Amino acid sequence: MISIGIIGAGIVGERIIKEMQQDGKIDIKGVYDVQQERLQYLNKTYGVPIADSFESILHSNIDWLYIGTPPALHSEIAKRAAGAGIHVLSEKPLAHNLADGEEMVAAVEKSRIRTAMHFPLMYSPAVHDMVKRIRTGNIGKITRIELQTFFPDWPRAWQQNPWIASRSQGGFVREVFPHYLQLLNRVFGELKIASHQISYPEQEDKCETGIIAHGLTAGNIPFLITGLSGIGQKELLQFKVYGEEGVLTLENWSNLYEERKYEERKQITDFVEVPTLFDAMRTQSTFLVTFEEGLVAQRYIDHLLQKN
């Protein structure tokens, strides 16, 4: 049984509460947020205890602290948790920017606590199957990797809050790309972004509307990354790995497809069960994405958000 405190009562905080309760082996000691209405809602809906301050969460005899706040607050919260000797699970991106992320990593290394990033792809049976097929040569020599992301609207309808559309903290590059950049980095090694172009609206406080980037993996495999919002189609996320013998597509997070020459693509659904995030936290598994790995993704994100 893991005991955990939660900072952040927004949409992502609510989602992880559901996941923890479904797991059944997580003791939620308390939830804190400056939005009292949200705290009362979570208490009434899920029966979770609520706290009156961040300090009371830190002193509630917890093993882990979960950070589900806007990115600009991650660094200070993580550093205070590290100072109290509490392990930290953080939402992505790791921090507001690379400098904040480096401070977080330095603080946790000094305190020797364990860390984890909430990257659900790492605990997805479909993703594990995809990675196994890549590494065992099931689709032959890899010739190209593509990430394509399309959003009819950003923020999405379920995602409305004061910061998710802001240029300073929001946007799909910060919110969606970290998942796939971390996966790319873990499977194919360091990414070298050769060129990128990012588009922003005229309103200086609004986040990006489009991006395209390309580069090479550590093994000199070309990759292409595209993202576009405000377009006339359903949301579509495709992570594609092209091989000489076949092509694998991870679509909309969890749907895995395989294609072979001259054959229709087929969906793969027969997966082996894999450890969950909470299993990995309990066993200190190497599946956990540490802050150090989150910092690597942060570097890519900061680079992509810069105008050419």
UniProtKB/TrEMBL annotation:
<feature type="domain" description="Gfo/Idh/MocA-like oxidoreductase N-terminal">
    <location>
        <begin position="2"/>
        <end position="113"/>
    </location>
</feature>
<keyword id="KW-0560">Oxidoreductase</keyword>
<dbReference type="InterPro" id="IPR050463">
    <property type="entry name" value="Gfo/Idh/MocA_oxidrdct_glycsds"/>
</dbReference>
<dbReference type="Pfam" id="PF22725">
    <property type="entry name" value="GFO_IDH_MocA_C3"/>
</dbReference>
<protein>
    <submittedName>
        <fullName>Gfo/Idh/MocA family oxidoreductase</fullName>
    </submittedName>
</protein>
<dbReference type="InterPro" id="IPR000683">
    <property type="entry name" value="Gfo/Idh/MocA-like_OxRdtase_N"/>
</dbReference>
<dbReference type="Pfam" id="PF01408">
    <property type="entry name" value="GFO_IDH_MocA"/>
</dbReference>
<feature type="domain" description="GFO/IDH/MocA-like oxidoreductase">
    <location>
        <begin position="130"/>
        <end position="248"/>
    </location>
</feature>
<dbReference type="InterPro" id="IPR036291">
    <property type="entry name" value="NAD(P)-bd_dom_sf"/>
</dbReference>
<dbReference type="InterPro" id="IPR055170">
    <property type="entry name" value="GFO_IDH_MocA-like_dom"/>
</dbReference>
